[in-house]
Amino acid sequence: MKKPSEIPWKTVSTTPIYSNKWLSLREDIAELPDGRTTIYGVVTCGNCVGILPFLDSDTVLLIQQYRYVARRVTWEMPTGGVHTGEPIEKAAQRELAEEIGYRAGRLIPVSTYHTSKSVMDETAHLFLAEDLVALERPPRDETEFIEVRPFPFEEVLQMVLAGEVVDGMTIIAVLLADRRRQS
After folding, report:
1. What are phi and psi of 176, to 5 degrees?
2. Which of 14, 29, 123, 135 yields a CA-CA distance of 20 to 30 A from 147?
């Protein structure tokens, strides 16, 4: 017999609230394991990718940009949404090209996880990128104003450990890259 913590909640009804090309918001009525119901708000963003690009074994490229919601400038790795029907690896290559002007000769998957398990339906797919090939950069997204800069990997690791890098996808990718480098 399943414990209450293992019983899936049932969706009784779903009401769309808002939608744009990046996200949607809906309100569900969910039945709990004990039969009661509750309102549950769900933001859906779909899949996204994050790529930590290595110029060589000791140098990575990060981007700096102003993040509107955070109201601050951040250093982070290239990230972005996966278009409908687009393979994950193709999205990773597209984001690299758009944001830093490179293609990866090798994409190494390092993690797939839920960015927020309680109210956000978004799955992040993280990669390390190696054997970079410079491209003529396609036009950037009209809302992206990005600076690209190389950093020694050890400096980026220290930035993560000191709390200077605040993007979750970048933090996870850097720590996983460090673990791979240690083994």
Report:
1. -70, -35
2. 123
* Model confidence pLDDT, tens digit, residues 7-38: 999 999 999 999 998 899 999 999 999 999 99
Question: What distance in Å separates the CA atoms of residue 24 and residue 44, rounded to the nearest whole number?
Answer: 5
Beta bridge partners, 58, equal none
Q: How far apart are CA 41 and CA 17, in angstroms?
A: 9
Residues 138 and 178 in one domain: yes
Q: How far separated are the first and last CA of the chain, in Å rounded? A: 41
- Look at the block and give the residue holding tokens 């039945």: 31
**Model confidence pLDDT, tens digit, residues 43-101:** 999 899 999 999 999 999 999 999 998 899 999 999 999 999 999 999 999 999 999 99
Rounded to whole angstroms, the Cα distance separating 22 from 46 reads 9
Q: In this structure, what CATH number is given to the domain that contains residue 68?
A: 3.90.79.10
My answer on whether 144 and 117 are in the same domain is yes
- Tokens encoding 35: 């039969």
